[in-house]
Amino acid sequence: MAHLLAVDDADVIRNMLKITFKTQPDWTVDLASSMSEALEHTRRTHYDLFVVDYLMPENTGLELVRHLREQAEYEHTPILMLTAETDPCIKEQAKSLHVSAWVIKPFQPLTLIDAVKRLLTQTVDNN
């Protein structure tokens, strides 16, 4: 069983992520709309993978990634950046924070599922 946290400020994207991930019987997903809400979730629950939007009103997704990487529990947890952002500088910053994958919005549900499966499999193989 894999437990995912999806973080996006847009209701429509969060709903689409929930619908997409619910198609996988061995995945559970929690949703957050901001960095502060996501960090609150991590205080109560352990996650196997994060899906993080880059552009959010209060903070960027990279700021959330930085906070997650500072926690020993999430130092090596896969993080998939889900964004419409294509700026190479931002991608480089994401790489420096060990973002595991980058999926461009709008996304195809099967593409996203495949990316998450790949990351979860790599995590199991590395442990």
Uncertain ranges: none
Structural class: alpha/beta
SSE series = EHEHEHEHEH
Task: Please estimate the helix content.
Answer: 40-55%
Number of helices: 5
Overall mean pLDDT stands at 95
Strand-residue proportion: 15-25%
Specify Rg, calculated over alpha carbons.
13 Å
Strand order of the largest sheet: 2-1-3-4-5
List the main descriptive attributes of the protein structure presented here.
5 strands; alpha/beta; 5 helices; 127 residues
What does this structure look like?
This protein is an alpha/beta fold and 127 residues long. Helix content is 46%, strand content 20%. It is built from five helices and five strands, in the order βαβαβαβαβα. Strands 2-1-3-4-5 form a five-stranded parallel β-sheet, sandwiched between helices. α1 crosses α5. The longest helix has 18 residues. The chain is globular, with a radius of gyration of 13 Å. 32% of the residues are buried.
Layout of secondary structure:
Blueprint: E1 2-7, H1 11-22, E2 27-32, H2 35-44, E3 49-53, H3 61-70, E4 79-83, H4 88-96, E5 101-104, H5 109-126
Parallel strand pairs: 1-2, 1-3, 3-4, 4-5
Helix pairs in contact: 1-5
Write a concise synopsis of the structure shown.
The chain has 127 residues and is an alpha/beta fold.
